[in-house]
Amino acid sequence: MSSPVGEIMKVKIPGKIIFLDGRYIEADDALFEALSPGVVKGKGVFETMRVYEGRIFALEDHWIRLKMGAQLLKMTLTYTPKEIEKRLYRIVELNRLTEAGIRLVVWQESQRRTRVSVVGRPLPPRKQQGPQGYRAVISEIRHKKTKYSHLKTIDYALLREAFLKAKHRGYDEAILLNHRDELVEGSRTNIFFIKNDVLYTSPVKSGCLNGVTRRYVIRCAHQLGIPCKMKTAPLEALLTADEAFLTNSIIEVMPLIVAGGQKIGGGKAGRVTGRLLAAYRELVRKSFAVSVCSVKGESV
Fold first, then answer.
1. What does the pLDDT read at residue 289?
2. Where are the domains of the chain?
3. Residue 205 CB partners (closer than 8 Å, separation 6+)
4. What is the dihedral of CA 253, 151, 34, 248, to 10 degrees?
5. CATH of domain 5-125
6. Confidence of residue 130 (pLDDT cuts 50, 70, 90)
7. Partners of 176 in the beta sheet?
8. So what's the pLDDT on residue 129?
């Protein structure tokens, strides 16, 4: 399965070279699948980051969250931040990635040695990316809050199941509620909605992921003077919102135009969503020109 680096450089399909346990190897789709959160066995943490023009955005923020998760799981990280950064960028280089998603997974199987994988997959240029909005199903799987919910752990099976069921039905995402039918998060995203020019999102204490993109979007809202409330809300609040959107590192700020079969905001992207997407992309651009301070933890 492994190949010398000289041979690896001949691979012409972007995203086919991965880092696994100290080696750079060629990977097929089966190995990619086997290394996915929710499939990997044991205990561990992961981070998915966005590559813009060959550069990784918010790497420090992702590292801080991964380190927090490893500490909670009582795992020893075998690489320093600089060593991880080197391997992430080596995957970018070997696969000739410019616009891409890159995922770092650190895990242990049955208390054995710590294992590490880095995989990257190309994305289309931003101007060509994605639909005008996402359509989401309301998952029948109920979200269960744990002491790890605000982090990205490989205990991801239920979220993965919700996402795969949504995709099978032709949807882009699955929205998860708690046992009180309150909004928590998407299977791979944080959820925002706007009502009367006020921005709402679930608080971290609800059990949602403390998303890196989520925190930057909240910062953008403050800079734009858009009121933002972190408040638990019923599903009905989303369905009757003026507009809504989803966030994660890969999709950035994605309009949510249909949820549970109902159109939101007339089934099109809203004005506030557009302002926040523009502000977020400007923040990304500036971060590569001038160092941006890391977003700190949120006390909600």
1. 83
2. 5-125, 130-289
3. 300
4. 0
5. 3.30.470.10
6. very low
7. 185
8. 53
